[in-house]
Amino acid sequence: MKRTSFDIDWRFTLGGESQYTREHDDTPWRRVDLPHDWSIELPRRPDAPSGARGGFAQDGVGWYRKRFIAPPEECVYVEFEGIYRDAEIWLNGRALGMHPYGYTTFLLDLTPYLDPSGENVLAVRVDNAAHEHTRWYSGSGIYRHVWLLTAGPVHVAHWGLSVTTPEVSDQAAAIAAQTTVVNHGDADRALTVCWNVFDPDGRRVADAVAELGVQASASADARQTLTLPAPQRWSPDTPHLYRLETEIYDGGECLDREATAFGIRTIAYTVDRGFLLNGQPLNMQGGCVHHDCGPLGAAAIDRAEERKVELLKASGYNAVRCAHNPPSPAFLDACDRLGMLVMDEAFDVWRAEKIPYDYHRHFDRWWRDDLDSMLLRDRNHPSVVVWSIGNELVERARPEGAVIARMLADRVREIDPTRPVTAGICTVWGEGTSWRDTDDLFAALDLRGYNYRDEVYREDHERFLDKVIIASETSPTRQYDYWKAVEELPYVIGDFVWTALDYLGEVGVGREYFEGERADFLPDWPWTVANCGDIDLCGGKRPQSYYRDVLWHRRDIPYIGVHAPVPEGRKVLLTGWGWSDVQASWTWPGCEGQELSVEVYFDCDEVELLLNGESLGVAPVPAEARYIAGFTVPYRPGELKAIARKGGVPVAECTLVTAGPACRLRLTPDHDAIRADRNDLAYIDVEVCDGEGRPVPTSDALLNVTLTGPGRIAAVANANPRNTDLYSARTHPIWRGRGLVIVQPIGQEGRIDLCVTTDGFPPAVATIHAR
C-alpha cells in the first residue's frame, strides 16, 4: 500500500462534546502538527489528578480534526501509531471505531464513508480524563505519527509482509518470506507474487516468484525461501540492514508493492553459554526505558527517538527493555539502524488493576488485538530478540495468572515462534503466598524474567536446570551485585536497570533523604521527575552511569564525585532506586573549611587523592569496596586530583579544578545541519562558563531564548528533578550550570539562529542549517 504522512495541519481543542460532525465549525481551534502531546504544554499543578505518579501533569479530554480530499484509490485506510488514550474516531460524522490502549498501533478503514467529490473530515476524541490511570507520565493526545494508506482492491495486507532467517552460515542465509494478499474485489484472482532482497549497499542479491490464487473478498498467503550468499550479520556492533520488497502482479500489471527492512542474525538462549547472538555469547548490558522524550513529553518525533538510542549506545548499553508497553516504530527503527537489542513488552497489567482506571478495564476485550498489534508490527525488526507479555502482574502468584500467561504466550508463539517469551516478575506479597507460587506462571514462559530477585538465582537454577534467567529489572543501588551475577552465572544472560533514561512521573522514586524524614515511595510536589535514570532528562550522564562504565570495563579514567555538605547531625539515606547525589565538581563557594564527602569510581587496587598537590591519603579499593574509594576532604578551592594505581603503579588519573566567576554562555549543538523536516531536531546544550571555558555548576541563571529562521523552539529545559517550569516557555532557569534547548525545523530550508541571553552575560548564538 502507498503510505503518506497524515501529520500536518490538524485542528485541536481541549474539552467539549459532540464535535465529530462534518459541519462542526473548527476554525477557532488551534492548528497543530503531529506528533502532539497536549499535557506537556500545560502547567503542572500540585493538585493535578494525575498526582505524583503522573508527574502532576494535566490530562483531560481533547479533540482533533483534519480536513482532506479523498485520494483516488479504491481502498483508503488511516493508521494511528499511538493515541493516549480511549480514542474514538469519526469520518464525516460516521463512527469508524475506538481504541482504548494508548500504546498500540491500529488501522481503520475510511473507504465506506469517504466523500470522493468533496472535503472529508476526520475527527478524533481523546479521553485522558482527570483521574489516575497510569503509574508514570503518559502524555495526552495523538502523540505518535498518523499515516494515510491507499491501494487498489488487491493489495498486500496491513503488516502483511514478514521475513525470518531460519538458517544462517558464513556461506549463505535462508530468507523465509511471507506475503499476505487481500482481495476486496468480487472475483477470484490468479496472481504472481515476487520478492527481491537488497543488501545494505542497495544491490539486489536474491529474488523469488510464487503463484497465488486469492478468492473474492478473502486473503491468502504466499511463501517462499530465498537463498542469500555470504550474508552480512546484524549485531549491535555491525547493524547491517537488508531490504525485502514484494510485488503483486496480475499478468504484466503491478497491483501493489510493499517493503521492509530486516537483519540477518541468529539468536539462542542456553543455560551453559547464555545468550548467543550469531553463535557468540553476549551479555545483555541493558536498561529499562519509558516512552517519553523528556522535555518533549510523549511526542514521538523521529529524531527524539533516535537520540535516545544514541545516548544509550554512547553509555555502553547494548540492550533495552521497552517498559511497560510497545514503543514507537521510530524507536525500533533506530534500534535496528544503530544496533540495540530490544525486549519488546506488551502490558503493565492484565485483568487485575494496579490503578483504578488503568488497562485492566479493557484487558478481556482487547488483549488479543493489542498483543497482535505489537507482534505483527514489530516482528521484522532484527533488534527485537525477546517478547515480554507483562510486568509485575498482580495475578503472578494466583492460579489465574498462570492461565493468562499461557494464553498470551501461546498467542505469541502462534504469530512468531522465532523469539522467546518472558515477563518481568517481582516478589510476591500477601499472607500465605510465596515465591514458589509463581512457578506455574513461569512454566508458560521461555525465559524467567526476574525483577529484583538476584537472591534466588542459584536456588531457582537448581530447581529448573534447563531455564535461562534474565534480570528484567534491577536497581542502580545494587548494580554491582546484579552485574557480577551476569558475569559469573552463565544462565543469567543480562541485566536491565531501572532505568537507563530518566523519565517524567513516578516522581522522586530515586532520591536522597535525611534519616528521620518520611520515606514514602513517592514524595510530593515539587518533584516532577523520577530521578533514577543513568542518563538525566536532558541527556547528561549521572554519577551511576559513570559507575556503570567501571562495571562494564569501559572507563579509562577515574570518576570523582563530590557530595554537597550535609548538616551536622544529619545522615543521608537513599531510596531503593537512588544514588548518591554527587557532582564532578570542586566548586563549592561558601563551603570553605567544611568537610565534603568524595567518592572515586575506578577498577584499581588503590586511589590516592591530592588537593593542591598535597596528598590526602590513599584508599584501598578491594573487591568488597566495589570499585569505590571514599574520602572526607575539608574544602579549599584549587585542584583535586585522584591517582589510580594497580600493583603500586599509577594507571590513570582525573582532576577537578575550581571554576572562576561565571561570565559567559556556551552553546553546543549536537548537529549544526539538520533536515528541513519536522521529524528532525537540533539539541543545543547550554553551559555557564568562567573565563577559561570551565563550566560553573553553581549557576542558576535564568535563560531567555529567541529564534530566527525556519524553525521553532520545541522545548527549553534543565535536568532538575524538582523543576516545575513549563518546557514550552521561552524563559527557563538552568540547573547546576546547564540547560538544554531543542529546535525543530518547520519544513523549509534556511539558516536558523538560536540566541540565548541571561543578565550580565553577552548573548550567545548557535547557528543551525536546515537543508
Spell out the blueprint of helices and strands:
Blueprint lengths: L1 E4 L4 E5 L15 E3 L27 E10 L5 E6 L6 E5 L2 E6 L6 E4 L9 E10 L17 E6 L2 E15 L3 E12 L5 E10 L5 E11 L3 E12 L12 E9 L2 E10 L4 E4 L3 E4 L2 E2 L2 E6 L12 H13 L4 E4 L6 H10 L2 E5 L17 H16 L5 E8 L7 H17 L5 E5 L13 H5 L3 E5 L5 H7 L4 E7 L4 H10 L3 E6 L14 E3 L28 H9 L7 E5 L8 E3 L7 E2 L11 E7 L4 E6 L2 E7 L7 E7 L4 E8 L2 E9 L6 E6 L3 E2 L7 E8 L12 E7 L2 E7 L13 E3 L4 E8 L4 E8 L6 E7 L1
Parallel strand pairs: 21-22, 21-28, 22-23, 23-24, 24-25, 25-26, 26-27, 27-28, 40-47
Antiparallel strand pairs: 1-10, 2-3, 2-4, 4-9, 5-8, 5-10, 6-7, 6-9, 11-12, 12-15, 13-14, 13-16, 16-17, 18-19, 19-20, 29-31, 30-32, 30-33, 33-36, 34-35, 34-37, 37-38, 39-41, 41-45, 42-44, 42-46, 43-45, 46-47
Helix pairs in contact: 1-2, 3-4
Describe what you observe in this structure:
This protein folds into 4 domains: 2-151, Jelly Rolls (Sandwich), CATH 2.60.120.260; 154-262, Immunoglobulin-like, CATH 2.60.40.10; 267-506, Glycosidases (TIM Barrel); 664-770, Immunoglobulins (Immunoglobulin-like, Sandwich), CATH 2.60.40. It contains 8 helices and 47 strands.
